[in-house]
């Protein structure tokens, strides 16, 4: 079934145009984007159950209508200083295929921003930062008007067993 | 128009294995000389459908083999032949053989045909009227090869609706080609005008010349499925084509059909021929497609094997009752939403409360019934034992009667699958070590026929399975001396009979004097116990010397629900499986002593219980740390007893186990998660994982531990 979804996505884009839709969100005054097809829903922040001995960016587990979903603080995943969660803090629930397994996870971000249609070939490669581990998570950079949006590679961001990009 | 047959493979395999099980069970019921026709019929039907199915799906190795088996059964059924014990043994062996063939095919492996051929030769020897013996069997095999070859002319003229009945002539042709040298000519004179042309109809007919050593019967069989949908003529025409070179093969059949018509199409381009070419092209494409799908299936089936996806058959009554309950649930929901639409008055509040009670009732019923879907009678496990006992007792020269009690007791399917191996082990043990030889039994004044009883029944929320034998019982002296020799206990230790019997579950313990193929390989009862504990169950033994022993397995009915004790650690709620809790107590500080660096031990009656501070292991802040203000939950796992330090005991309740791994990853010391009544997630503690995580090691065998890793060594 999973493969089928992939095929459908492919067909949809082949059929229409090369543009992909990206959901963007704010974090530490930067705008980040992710493939909107991976997004399941957006929820407000609510307390979660701590998972013992988990990495610090794993906030805990949440009940999503009967499914246990891990919640990841994206700031901490990127090694950005933590802030207190406020009314704008949201959890973006995404469904990503990691190592042939479809996993549902929640990402805590400062706020959601917008949805853009971006042609993928417009995305520029990440400049080769010498000592930025986080470059590993970045799929590409793209300009929308005056702003720059960082497109994320969700598979890498959410592959928790992969420690290569890990900070803190 | 082609049908992808591979989508039915799973169903075919499942049904065939069921058929084999049925055959086996019936065969064991057969007593030569006293067979009743219904039993033979059941066996015959099972064999026949396996043959038919495997033929359809092109598993020639299976269908060829089942064919001889079926012929023998047919003769017995018609009274042409008298069933002998030899036949039953042979049939039982062939059931194993077919099972092996099918398993190999299911795993997409090349089946090992050597055994099938040996058995087939024996069948053919019997059918040929010879007395079956292994020597004649080997002699019979090459004999078939030297048969005179004959050429047959075969006319095959299918009715137009052939394709609609799901038949693919190409398969039949390639089967024909396997019989010998095949020459095919196709006739397309019947193809109608384009307007009358229906692409789903078959307008072609064929003539074959087949040179084969096989009999006409074998050819007729290929067309067996289309007999009613086609005109078929098979005539022997002497050695007319004997000196023709061997050329026509299955692949060429398609090419022959495709090439000439395609050529014609480019030349003249008439509508009629176009249509034909198209059809031929379609056939070619279909073949290619099939090849691709087969490739896909290969990779897919590997995946599905890994995940172990299986299906179960559910009684229609269970489904009906579910539908009823969902109906009630919908009615309750309608009632509640009606109340919600009204203005809130006192009477509507009362109605609301009533509705909610009803909803709770409906939900509970529904939950119980959904659980019941996974429940199967334990006879699925029990049914393999008659064969096992028969074979094993023959090997051991013991006379054994097997009694099955409570076969209808229901059990969760996943539990059942994991129960099978430990039970096989225990039953083999009873046969090998428990029961005496007939001579010994007579000398002890017992019936020469020993009895092994399998008994299953429900008790509380558990299923209890007893494996009883009336053999010599456990030899406590032998166990004791063996345990001393293995260093499991000390010479000076005084143990009760129960404690000595318990020793057989210790790792590396086996009392068998010689290692046999049946038991005594050193991996023994400890594996049984570990497997059963992995299912949250327990296994115990009671034994009386000279009278027999009883192994008692206790298992929860399902793996999906667990009786849990909610405990509080700091501000977190965890669940401890109730089955592993021995007791909960307040700590008497005067009985706590410190061992090594930082390990605390509580003296509880005669035992020393190491204290694990849960908040420490789980790195939680803000928990109560003073021993006298907290509670100790004593739990047992893998024969260890440890005390878990918690802040408070909360409620006991049944929890539905949810996977934490599905979306996250394995967490040490946690076996899963659940959702509490208020919707929050709570984690279930995995006791044996926790012991590992805490760094408690077992240095000797009787001493429990020492050496707790410093907490700073734990991953933060």
TrEMBL record, chain A:
<dbReference type="GO" id="GO:0006935">
    <property type="term" value="P:chemotaxis"/>
</dbReference>
<protein>
    <recommendedName>
        <fullName>Chemotaxis protein CheW</fullName>
    </recommendedName>
</protein>
<keyword id="KW-0963">Cytoplasm</keyword>
<dbReference type="Pfam" id="PF01584">
    <property type="entry name" value="CheW"/>
</dbReference>
<dbReference type="InterPro" id="IPR002545">
    <property type="entry name" value="CheW-lke_dom"/>
</dbReference>
<dbReference type="GO" id="GO:0007165">
    <property type="term" value="P:signal transduction"/>
</dbReference>
<dbReference type="GO" id="GO:0005829">
    <property type="term" value="C:cytosol"/>
</dbReference>
<dbReference type="InterPro" id="IPR039315">
    <property type="entry name" value="CheW"/>
</dbReference>
<dbReference type="InterPro" id="IPR036061">
    <property type="entry name" value="CheW-like_dom_sf"/>
</dbReference>
<feature type="domain" description="CheW-like">
    <location>
        <begin position="19"/>
        <end position="163"/>
    </location>
</feature>
UniProtKB/TrEMBL annotation, chain B:
<keyword id="KW-0175">Coiled coil</keyword>
<keyword id="KW-0547">Nucleotide-binding</keyword>
<keyword id="KW-0597">Phosphoprotein</keyword>
<keyword id="KW-0808">Transferase</keyword>
<dbReference type="InterPro" id="IPR005467">
    <property type="entry name" value="His_kinase_dom"/>
</dbReference>
<dbReference type="GO" id="GO:0005737">
    <property type="term" value="C:cytoplasm"/>
</dbReference>
<feature type="domain" description="CheW-like">
    <location>
        <begin position="561"/>
        <end position="696"/>
    </location>
</feature>
<feature type="domain" description="HPt">
    <location>
        <begin position="1"/>
        <end position="105"/>
    </location>
</feature>
<dbReference type="GO" id="GO:0006935">
    <property type="term" value="P:chemotaxis"/>
</dbReference>
<dbReference type="InterPro" id="IPR002545">
    <property type="entry name" value="CheW-lke_dom"/>
</dbReference>
<dbReference type="InterPro" id="IPR036097">
    <property type="entry name" value="HisK_dim/P_sf"/>
</dbReference>
<dbReference type="Pfam" id="PF01627">
    <property type="entry name" value="Hpt"/>
</dbReference>
<keyword id="KW-0418">Kinase</keyword>
<keyword id="KW-0145">Chemotaxis</keyword>
<keyword id="KW-0902">Two-component regulatory system</keyword>
<comment type="function">
    <text>Involved in the transmission of sensory signals from the chemoreceptors to the flagellar motors. CheA is autophosphorylated; it can transfer its phosphate group to either CheB or CheY.</text>
</comment>
<feature type="modified residue" description="Phosphohistidine">
    <location>
        <position position="48"/>
    </location>
</feature>
<dbReference type="GO" id="GO:0005524">
    <property type="term" value="F:ATP binding"/>
</dbReference>
<dbReference type="InterPro" id="IPR051315">
    <property type="entry name" value="Bact_Chemotaxis_CheA"/>
</dbReference>
<dbReference type="InterPro" id="IPR004358">
    <property type="entry name" value="Sig_transdc_His_kin-like_C"/>
</dbReference>
<dbReference type="InterPro" id="IPR008207">
    <property type="entry name" value="Sig_transdc_His_kin_Hpt_dom"/>
</dbReference>
<dbReference type="InterPro" id="IPR004105">
    <property type="entry name" value="CheA-like_dim"/>
</dbReference>
């Amino acid at each position: 079934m999973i493969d089928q979804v992939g095929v459908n996505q492919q067909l949809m884009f082949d059929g229409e145009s090369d543009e992909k839709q990206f959901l963007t969100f704010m974090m530490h005054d930067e705008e980040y984007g992710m493939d909107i097809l991976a997004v399941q829903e957006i929820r407000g922040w609510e307390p979660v159950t701590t998972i013992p001995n988990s990495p610090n960016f794993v906030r805990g587990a949440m009940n999503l209508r009967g499914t246990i979903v891990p919640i990841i603080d994206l700031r901490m995943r990127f090694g950005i200083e933590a802030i207190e969660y406020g009314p704008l803090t949201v959890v973006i629930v995404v469904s990503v295929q990691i190592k042939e397994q479809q996993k549902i996870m929640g990402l805590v971000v400062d706020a959601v921003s917008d949805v853009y249609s971006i042609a993928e070939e417009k995305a520029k490669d990440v400049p080769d930062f010498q000592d930025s581990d986080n470059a590993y998570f970045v799929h590409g950079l793209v300009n929308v008007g005056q702003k720059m949006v960082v497109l994320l590679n969700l598979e890498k961001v959410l592959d928790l067993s992969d420690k290569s990009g890990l900070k803190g | 128009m082609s049908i992808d047959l591979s989508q039915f493979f799973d169903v075919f395999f499942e049904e065939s294995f069921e058929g084999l099980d049925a055959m086996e069970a019936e065969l064991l019921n057969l007593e030569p000389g006293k067979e009743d026709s219904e039993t033979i019929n059941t066996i015959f039907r099972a064999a026949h459908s396996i043959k038919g199915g495997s033929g359809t799906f092109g598993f020639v190795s299976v269908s060829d083999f089942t064919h001889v088996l079926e012929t023998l059964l047919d003769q017995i059924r018609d009274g042409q032949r008298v069933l002998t014990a030899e036949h039953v043994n042979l049939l039982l062996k062939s059931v194993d053989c077919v099972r092996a063939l099918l398993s190999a095919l299911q795993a997409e492996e090349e089946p090992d045909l050597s055994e099938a051929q040996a058995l087939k030769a024996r069948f053919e020897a019997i059918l040929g009227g010879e007395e079956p013996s292994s020597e004649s069997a080997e002699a019979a095999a090459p004999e078939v090869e030297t048969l005179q070859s004959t050429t047959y002319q075969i006319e095959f003229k299918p009715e137009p609706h052939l394709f609609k009945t799901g038949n693919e002539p190409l398969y039949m042709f390639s089967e024909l080609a396997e019989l010998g040298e095949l020459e095919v000519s196709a006739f397309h004179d019947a193809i109608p005008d384009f307007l009358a042309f229906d692409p789903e109809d078959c307008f072609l007919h064929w003539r074959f010349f087949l040179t084969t050593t096989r009999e006409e019967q074998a050819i007729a069989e290929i067309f067996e499925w289309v007999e009613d949908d086609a005109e078929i003529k098979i005539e022997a025409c002497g050695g007319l084509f004997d000196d023709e070179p061997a050329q026509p093969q299955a692949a060429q059949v398609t090419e022959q059909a495709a090439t000439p018509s395609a050529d014609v199409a480019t030349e003249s381009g008439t509508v009629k021929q176009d249509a034909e070419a198209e059809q031929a092209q379609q056939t070619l494409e279909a073949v290619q497609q099939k090849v691709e799908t087969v490739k896909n299936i290969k990779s897919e089936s590997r995946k599905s094997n890994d995940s172990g996806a299986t299906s179960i058959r559910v009684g229609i009554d269970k489904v009906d009752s579910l539908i009823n309950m969902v109906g009630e649930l919908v009615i309750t929901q309608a009632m509640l939403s009606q109340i919600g639409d009204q203005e809130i008055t006192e009477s509507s509040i009362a109605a609301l409360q009533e509705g909610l009670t009803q909803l709770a009732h409906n939900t509970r019923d529904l939950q119980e019934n959904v659980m019941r879907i996974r429940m199967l009678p334990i006879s699925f496990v029990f049914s393999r034992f008659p064969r096992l006992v028969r074979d094993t007792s023959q090997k051991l020269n013991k006379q054994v009667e097997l009694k099955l009690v409570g076969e209808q007791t229901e059990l969760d399917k996943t539990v059942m699958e994991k129960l099978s191996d430990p039970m096989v082990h225990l039953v083999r043990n009873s046969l090998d070590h428990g029961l005496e030889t007939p001579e010994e039994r007579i000398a002890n004044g017992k019936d020469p026929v020993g009895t092994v009883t399998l008994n299953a029944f429900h008790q509380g929320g558990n299923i209890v399975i007893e494996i009883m034998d009336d053999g010599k019982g456990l030899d406590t002296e032998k166990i004791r001396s063996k345990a001393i020799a293995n260093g499991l206990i000390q010479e000076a230790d005084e143990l009760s009979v129960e404690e000595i019997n318990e020793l057989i579950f210790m790792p590396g313990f086996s009392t068998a004097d010689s290692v046999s193929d049946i038991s005594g390989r050193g991996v023994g009862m400890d594996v049984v116990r570990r497997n059963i504990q992995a299912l949250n169950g327990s296994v115990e033994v009671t034994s009386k010397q000279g009278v027999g022993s009883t192994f008692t397995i206790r298992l929860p009915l399902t793996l999906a629900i667990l009786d849990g004790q909610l405990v509080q650690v700091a501000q977190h709620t965890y669940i401890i499986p109730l089955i592993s809790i021995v007791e909960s107590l307040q700590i008497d500080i005067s009985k706590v002593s410190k061992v090594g660096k930082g390990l605390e031990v509580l003296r509880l009656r005669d035992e020393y219980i190491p204290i694990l501070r849960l908040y420490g292991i789980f790195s939680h802040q803000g928990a109560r740390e003073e021993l006298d203000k907290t509670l100790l939950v004593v739990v047992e796992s893998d024969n260890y007893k440890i005390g878990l330090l918690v802040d408070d005991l909360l409620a006991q309740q049944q929890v539905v186990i949810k996977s934490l791994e599905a979306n996250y990853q394995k967490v040490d010391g946690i076996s899963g998660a659940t959702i509490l009544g208020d919707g929050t997630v709570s984690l279930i503690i995995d006791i044996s994982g926790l012991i590992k995580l805490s760094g408690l090691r077992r240095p000797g065998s009787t001493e429990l531990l020492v050496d707790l890793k410093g907490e700073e060594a734990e991953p933060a």
